[in-house]
Fold each of these.
Amino acid sequence: MAKGNANNVPTRYDSSCLARGEGGGGRFPHTFMGFSRATREELARIMPERRCCQLAELAGLAYVDGTMTAQGYDVAVGQAAAARTVYLLFKQLFQPYMEIKVRHRARFARHNIYIVRIPHQPQLEKIYGSLVGVQHRYGEGRWGRACCRRSFLRGIYLGRGSLTNPRKHYHLEIVTDSFQQAAVVQSCMETFGLTPGVVQRKKHVALYLKDGEQISQFLNLLGGHTALLRLESVRVVKGMRNQVNRLVNCETANMDKTLEAALHQIENIRLIDATEGLESLSPDLQEVAGLRLQYPYASLKELGQYLDPPLSKSGVNHRFRKIRQIAEELRGEVAK
Ligand SMILES: [Zn+2]
């Protein structure tokens, strides 16, 4: 598919050079850096609801970057947002005693390294066993639930992924340390119908997606819905910047409305959760409430697609209206 242009694949998986405007770039690289970072930060804010998914995401983050050392178990990542996610997931899952270290890299390197360390403690063996258990299962091709696989890939992307090269096309890349690791991530992506390419770098083995359709699909799987909208708006107009700007602004306006509505929905759900409990809702309503908490940024249409069987936008809206009524009644009672 790549038709022998592997040499044209960017050799770097961060795009700091673009941000500095090297190579005579105009304003676009800045916009793009914002996009790449915003994508990571959006993904880093997602906290999976289920324990199985939380563990899978942490196993993904630790897959390439986790090591047992004399001091304990270290997960070393190059991005603050990824380190925060590692920390929160450990805390959520195991409440271990943790240390965080920041190491400044040698002079040619661009980022710091953030280390989340679980020092030796009674439950370390159990924690390590849980992570390695997931990694082994996936290594053997026992894929299990889709929710966990998606979380695993989000973990991998947070630790090792990037989006680069906006000028001609987007290029999504995940850098691993060996062919063996790359093969596992590749197989995991293939369970979702994605077909990443594999390329060897000096010390690394990278997986990449070059096709805009597949990149959108991948971001969607990971839950990067805002990123997806922005990517789509850029894709639609290719290189026509004015239209890009117009579209992005327009998307932003629509997104603001979507977000505002979503925030109200979350408020209502939290109120019910704190008073009657979510169990008091009918299964239909519980289902959309759970999804909304899990995907705060998703549109009603997207939420509908996550349901099995899928539900139309108006169907989802109808359920949220009922939730609003219940919350309003509760507010009424609280006010009395
Ligand atoms: Zn799961």
Amino acid sequence: MTNETEAPELLPCPFCGGAAQHTSRSNSGDHSWFQNDVDHWIFCETANCYVHVGMCETREEAVDAWNTRITIAELTTTKPKKGETP
Ligand SMILES: [Zn+2]
């Protein structure tokens, strides 16, 4: 088991700047939309924002997903999208 007290730092929410929090839940099998035995995800604590990353298998994966950011410059750089011919 990972040591829950050694939490990697979470970046603030990219939309509202609010605090982010890790959570996880064990799946009893009656929720087919959960992907793993235990799902981890990170969400924004701000009411009416509640941005979150997808379910991850480990806390580290969820934190990585949350902390991965793309810059506006990268977003606006023209590159072919999936299924599009350049
Ligand atoms: Zn937020």
